[in-house]
Amino acid sequence: MNFLESVVVQCPYCGEPMELDIDCAAGRQEYTEDCPVCCKPVTVSVTLKEDGRPQVEVRPEDA
Asked: Is 0.85 topped by the overall pTM?
């Protein structure tokens, strides 16, 4: 099992892809990360699937 997984998601503001490195050892998590293109804050929510892979959802910070 990899403890660090790279996941590509779409910025909810500008639609550009964002590559996130997810620490699977941390389990469930929620944090804010700025989009590298439009610089707006994006809330990232991570849960782990039964097989240990991350399921990542992103939404605007103010949503």
From this structure: yes
